[in-house]
Design brief:
66 residues; 3 helices; globular; 76% helix
Amino acid sequence: MAKDYEINEKDIDSVIRYLKIHDPENATPEKAIAMLKDLQSFFHNMSHENPELIEKLYEELNDKTE
């Protein structure tokens, strides 16, 4: 069984780096945490509403990393 995702400093730092490039005015830890929470909620909802899409995204990601 998959472990539940918990927001961590590494992920927050990654989002802040992204924001510094694409939205520097909002490159704050608070905005990064909000984005991570939104993404977590988005994927949770998608897993219930469209599990086939989640599987397709997963397969495409695996293909790119092989």
